[in-house]
Design goal:
This protein is 48% helix and 20% strand. By secondary structure, it is α+β, with helices and mostly antiparallel strands. Strands 1-3-2 form a 3-stranded mixed β-sheet, covered by helices on one side. Strands 4-5-6 form a 3-stranded antiparallel β-sheet. α1 crosses α2 and α2 crosses α3. The structure holds zinc ion.
Length: 149
Amino acid sequence: MEMRQSDRKMLIEACIKLFAKELKIDKNDFTLIVFSSKDIVQVEGANGMASPITDKLYTMVLSSRIDCEKLIEVIAHEMVHIKQFAKGQLKRIGRQTFWMGKRYVRSKVNYYDHPWEHDAWSKEKFLSAKIFKILSKENEKFERSQRKS
Ligand SMILES: [Zn+2]
């Protein structure tokens, strides 16, 4: 599905708001800056990236080359990482990564074995399903209104 730039921005904002609430970080004190990039580094095939700049400032980079459906899933995945930063579960200090207080040498552990990724994968489907449900309801409403007129 092709989307207008402004619709895309609105969708991103709506997803972040809903996911923050679902992940119970909507009351947490942090700032999230979101970028779209067509040149996002394809780290292990990812279409998104979340990074902590400080304890309370995080960035999220989203690929501008993905469609609406994929975008929702990517935001869901990255928001789980934002939750991990906000709750102090995942910390990056210099080149070191700490998960639940335990130090991980990222290069020594396979990407697919990172526990913070398991957390993200296990929650991204459930989160994105919430948005898909809202969208399909809106779509039904729209189609019904079209039939009436
Ligand atoms: Zn991830």
